[in-house]
Design a protein that fits this description.
single chain, alpha+beta, Jelly Rolls, 9-stranded mixed beta sheet, 4-stranded antiparallel beta sheet, 18% strand
């Protein structure tokens, strides 16, 4: 697999590429044209046609199958956001039994999209983690190199696989995804409107205090807001949102969707840049206490983790776990797999070597970072310099066999 560097593409038109046929779209083609290029695209409904949720979660007229959802998941506690209330540039959430949310949703829809409880949106439900044996969906091959969920599965702490359900009018405010990760989102039923802004365009939207807007469609922003890429996503379609693309999303109908956030060798450098920028923001915020606070660097890392979900030492552990998995895959895998054809699963040996090189590149940047050097890294096993030497040896052997 060729070496690539994520690129930032400029805004172009109000449409994005549509990929029609899973029989002819290869992993390599998606890798080079969209993932490595950091460019959005839309997959047709043919790519999700075989999913269990496309059959059982949806009625014949493309509406949510309430009875099936109640039978399968009715007692599950789900996070529900109030779309009509702003709280720190997001919506406040509460946990409700799914059966209570569905009862609200049906009443809201039957009452002309009005309710004393206002517009509620089920968001960020870890359905896959709670119900691993349900026949719901299969991650498309194109999104299968997923370091983020691979890592959190390995440590059995969290995951970044979600289900969203909401009525017409429910929406998600302006944001970029966690760790500036990629995301893919598949509509099981219903339609969404996406407003997408390439990286850097959000800078034009900051107010005098440097804050990004909550809603980019407000009248006050119309004279200043660069035009977004507007995408209408139909039932069954899957949208690929690249790293660092800010977006705002609306449900145009009763809609159910499945979403993953993920990071891999193509965008791990963007994740690392994001963490550095977040730490710099923390350091500025508490900089006045630097000379008087014991272990100021450690406190900065604590705040970084509370804000982003990860600190520098865990970022190292993230790289280490993926490296160990790839080294093992190289030892166990076939001698030659060039990812030819659309149905070859990644990663093969070329993809593994690509991943290892990207981990090594990022590890060099991490160990050279002055803030990382100030941390107590004695508990890290193996030590970062030892892991780097191991990676260099494995990559050299792999290159010799290639």
């Amino acid at each position: 697999m060729d070496e690539v560097t994520p690129q930032i593409i400029p805004p172009t038109t109000s449409c994005i590429d549509r990929l029609e046929d899973p029989e002819t779209l290869s992993y390599d083609e998606f890798f080079q044209k969209y993932m490595a290029a950091n460019a959005p695209c839309l997959f047709s409904a043919a790519f999700s046609r075989s999913w269990g949720s496309r059959r059982s979660w949806v009625t014949s007229d493309n509406k949510p199958n309430w009875e099936h959802l109640l039978q399968a998941f009715g007692d599950a506690l789900v996070p529900v956001a109030n779309c009509d209330v702003k709280e720190y540039n997001s919506n406040p959430k509460e946990l409700l039994p799914l059966r209570e949310y569905i009862a609200y949703w049906r009443e809201y829809t039957e009452n002309g999209h009005r309710s004393a409880r206002r517009c509620l949106y089920l968001k960020d439900w870890h359905m896959r983690r709670e119900f691993p044996n349900q026949d719901v969906y299969e991650t498309p091959i194109y999104f299968s190199s997923d370091w983020l969920n691979e890592y959190w599965d390995a440590i059995a702490v969290d995951d970044y696989r979600f289900v969203y359900m909401g009525p017409s009018g429910s929406w998600t405010p302006f944001h970029a995804d966690v760790f500036r990760s990629y995301s893919w989102s598949a509509n099981i039923c219903g339609r969404k409107k996406w407003l997408l802004f390439p990286p850097g365009e959000e800078e034009h939207l900051r107010d005098c205090k440097g804050h990004l807007p909550y809603d980019v469609t407000t009248a006050a922003l119309q004279n200043y807001c660069p035009p977004p890429l507007e995408v209408i996503q139909e039932a069954g379609e899957i949208i690929f949102v690249p790293s660092g693309w800010h977006h705002q999303v609306y449900n145009l109908e009763d809609t159910i969707s499945i979403n993953h956030n993920w990071v891999n060798g193509c965008n791990v450098s963007i994740m690392w840049s994001f963490l550095q920028a977040e730490l710099s923001a923390v350091q500025r915020e508490i900089g006045e206490w630097k000379e008087t606070m014991d272990d100021w660097e450690h406190h900065c890392q604590i705040i970084l983790k509370s804000c982003t979900g990860i600190d520098y030492k865990e970022f190292y552990n993230f790289l280490k776990i993926i490296a160990e998995h790839r080294i093992q895959a190289l030892q166990d895998g076939p001698e030659d797999n060039n990812l030819q054809g659309p149905n070859v699963m990644a990663p093969g040996p070329r993809h593994v070597l690509f991943d290892l090189r990207k981990i090594a590149d990022t590890l060099i940047l991490l160990t050279d970072n002055k803030d990382f050097q100030k941390l107590d890294t004695e508990t890290l096993n193996p030590r970062p310099e030892d892991l780097l030497r191991t990676l260099e040896r494995v990559i050299e052997r792999g290159d010799c066999r290639a």
